[in-house]
Amino acid sequence: MGNKKINWAKLFSILGLIWLASSFIHPLHVSLGGKMVQINAYPEIYLIPLFGIWRLRTEKQPYQRTRIKWMMGLFFLYWVLLFNLYPQVPFVDGTTHTTYLAVHMVGSLPFFLMLIAVAFMGKRADCGWNCPCVFDRETIGFAFRDATLKGDFWWRFRHIKWIGMIIVWGYFIYMLLDPAHAYQRFGETMYETILWAYYLSFLIIPFTGHRSFCRWGCPWAATWGVLNLAGFYKIKADAEKCIDCGLCERECDMGVPIRNLISEKGMIRSTECMGCGRCVQVCPKEVLTFHDYKDVFKSRNLSPLERNIRLAGGLTVAGLIVLEPGSPWGYLGLAFFFTGLFGFCPTYAVIGTVVKKVKPPAGRSKDQ
Ligand code: SF4
Ligand code: SF4
Ligand code: SF4
Fold first, then answer.
1. In the chain, what are the domain boundaries?
2. pLDDT digits 0-9 by tens, 273-319
3. Residue 318: CB partners within 8 Å, gap ≥ 6?
4. Which terminus in the chain has less CB density within 10 A, N or C?
5. Could you tell me the distance, in angstroms and rounded to a whole number, from the CA of residue 270 to the centre of ligand 2?
6. Residues near ligand 1 (Cβ within 6 A)
7. Strand 35-38 relative to strand 29-32: parallel, antiparallel, unpaired?
8. Average pLDDT, the chain
9. Residues 6 or more apart from 313 whose CB is under 8 A from it?
């Protein structure tokens, strides 16, 4: 008899993934106090924090620990708090739908805001740091990271997702042409199909790795991916320093052929890169560096982190221009967005000038 140890992380991961998938595929109802209640509704709310704590306890790389903390914080900010504050958001066809799904529904207010964010920050804005699916996959499904299918053969599968993207954008055009009927005639079935694919994809994670749907099947991965190419985001490479050790590729959960990209283009500019930063952190020769809007619009008085918070946070609040017309908060959010974009805050500039004026000249003691 072999002395095989039970891999508890994988066992709990399988149970978590089945429970998560069941919330859509097979809702379980029980009678509580005379009311039918779905006991497996929104399991993300407790599964993500539970598996997130496990991830924080086991993750060694400081950058990834920071990323997990941000993911958990953003999950509660965007997908619990905001979802409860604004349960419905408008679409270009004049309808409203639930906020929870709206980022991933073409033509919604959050969808357009996300397009802008991805253009400036790359897929980090959604797929790397801030999407219910990445939270699920990088916490509940993470134990199966080592099952990720890599290599030339699997890299070709990335093209499948263009089919979904074409259908989704085809629907967007239909929505504009026939807003009264597009959703009933096509949109409802389309979203139902995407949701089936999305939830079923959790069940294949043990065989394909945790990001397989993001790599091959997600229409939004394709849409944001186009902006990865057209926008400001890329990972620059100092090809001269590369020793071809392959550590970066071993770390990449999206199966990006990093070394080929470095030698052919001198950078990682790919529709697949979701900006997790694993390759950047693991490289022993510091070959790779992130590049985005901050390298184009140089900062005057804001740190990179503050710029990102202002850009993304300001953009989110700017949505109030549409949600609450007449309210000044949306315009304040827009102003915040621009301070992040240009790395310049007028308030800080004024405070800085005042502080400089009242500060005693260097070299003079207080008693002088
Ligand atoms: S690729 Fe799709 S499923 Fe994956 S994190 Fe991005 S939006 Fe979510
Ligand atoms: S290329 Fe680097 S940053 Fe992009 S997904 Fe792969 S490991 Fe993450
Ligand atoms: S980890 Fe760095 S040195 Fe090694 S192959 Fe990747 S880029 Fe080159």
1. 8-229, 297-358
2. 999 999 999 999 999 999 999 999 999 999 999 999 999 999 999 99
3. 113, 330, 331, 333, 334, 336, 337
4. N
5. 9
6. 126-127, 131, 133-134, 213-214, 218, 220-221
7. antiparallel
8. 93
9. 333, 336, 340
